[in-house]
Specification:
The chain has a five-stranded parallel sheet, with helices on both faces. It has 169 residues and is of the alpha/beta class. The protein contains eight helices and five strands; from the N terminus they run E-H-E-H-H-E-H-H-E-E-H-H-H. The chain is globular.
């Protein structure tokens, strides 16, 4: 049976910054630099408000974002448990629903953490990492994220139809 045309609205062309709270300062620098470059960024410190159902809102943003930027560091190595690990798992699951070669994951290392020994989902190791010491974002990185968000392949990334797999949306 051919796919029915999508009636879902176009996904926002936003980047989701996922981080351990130990790396909040570095993640904040990345988010602020990307916003200064005119990009839409979802960063929990500035998006969540009192009374929000934060868990549901974060999960929705991961389902809807065009790019997922996990901030990886020695801090994430030390933290064997944390909410950021759930975010990473959700992004890993979503990446399985996205066509191969479609940009979605943009891992960012903010210190000297090595890729080989990191405790990250394996799919994070399948794409090139960016190194931004302490979250100091370069113009070339902001430009790269901007070009990925403008890419037609990224524009086609929208909220996946989970019901095909799980029976629910």
């Amino acid at each position: 049976m051919p796919d029915a045309p999508s009636t879902q609205p176009a996904a926002p062309r936003a980047a989701f910054v996922s981080y351990s709270h130990d790396d909040a300062a570095a993640a904040r620098r990345i988010a602020e630099a990307l916003r200064s470059a005119g990009l839409e960024v979802w960063f929990d410190e500035s998006e969540l408000r009192g009374g929000d159902t934060w868990d549901a809102k974060i999960k929705q943003q991961i389902r809807d974002c065009a790019l997922f930027l996990p901030v990886i560091s020695q801090n994430t190595q030390r933290r064997r448990e944390g909410y950021f690990r759930l975010e990473w798992h959700l992004a890993e699951e979503r990446s399985r629903l996205i066509a191969r070669g479609t940009p979605f994951l943009v891992p960012v290392a903010v210190d000297g953490v090595g890729e080989r020994e990191t405790l990250v989902p394996e799919v994070f190791l399948s794409v090139q990492w960016t190194r931004l010491r302490d979250g100091e974002t370069t113009a070339s990185f902001a430009g790269r994220v901007k070009s990925l968000l403008a890419d037609d392949d990224v524009a086609r990334v929208s909220r996946p139809v989970i019901s095909e797999i799980t029976g629910r949306e």
